[in-house]
Amino acid sequence: MTASGKAQQRTTPRGVATRMRLIEEGGKLFAAKGFDGVSTRDIARACGVNLASIAYHFGGKKGLYNAVLEDIFANMQRASQPLVAAAMSGAREADGDARRLAQVARRFVHGFLEFSLGNHKNYWAVDFLQREVMNGSDTLERFYHTVIGPVYEAGSELCHAASGGRLSAQERVLRGHALVGMCMSFVRGQCILLHRAQWDAFTPERVSAIAGTVAEAALNMLGLPAVEHAGNEGA
Questions:
Q1: Which end of the chain is less crowded, N or C, counting CB atoms within 10 A of the terminal residue's CB?
Q2: Digit-coded pLDDT (tens) for 60-73
Q3: Are residues 181 and 73 in the same domain?
Q4: 206-223 b/e with 16+ CB inside 10 Å = b?
Q5: What residue numbers bound the domain in which 18 lies?
Q6: Do the domain assignments include residue 190?
Q7: How far apart are CA 8 and CA 72, in angstroms?
Q8: What's the CATH number where 18 sits?
Q9: Does residue 81 share a domain with residue 45?
Q10: Over the stretch 127-177, which tens digit does the pLDDT of each residue have?
Q11: CA 205 → CA 114, 189, 195, 197, 210, distances in Å?
């Protein structure tokens, strides 16, 4: 088969489904055992596909590993970019109105946690990224500049707006870190929370309860009034 023929075959519904299954199952195994702890045979067995499928779709294990990383970044960017944009514009448009700003902050917290805990892929994606960072790769810089850095900046902007624009540069960074850190603690500690709460998974109702608790704490920290979550209204 020619190169163009193979490329066309990869884009058929069956080819796309196989590719995504390899990314999903390969990602889970890489997250749990690391790159060196997983063989292509392990991945093929977990996916229920022929061993040659990995080379066919990705050129080998390293190609699959890179595809997993790219998929994680793409998913996180798709979720974080509108979240950041809504928080930044909402903070400006609130124009000092405490209730409007409180609603923006609450939507920010809910949006962050609904994506982070409501997306099953993130259960293993967080572990995958942590392994990457610990291995000393350039993933941390990329993750910071493309995903998490803008999220922390949005948190800082909300804190600055809540203070009436009175925060120093250092206070702005620290308070923003504290705000986003409230959410991140639930993301990093998701396995512990599932164990403590005796849950088998994060259902939409459970995620909403978590987000409500974190949002209440966030509004208290910001000195903003309590408001009900209004979804995307006014975003």
A1: N
A2: 999 999 999 999 99
A3: yes
A4: bbbebbbebbeebbeebe
A5: 3-59
A6: yes
A7: 24
A8: 1.10.10.60
A9: no
A10: 898 888 888 778 888 899 999 999 999 999 999 999 999 999 999 999 999
A11: 10, 18, 17, 14, 9
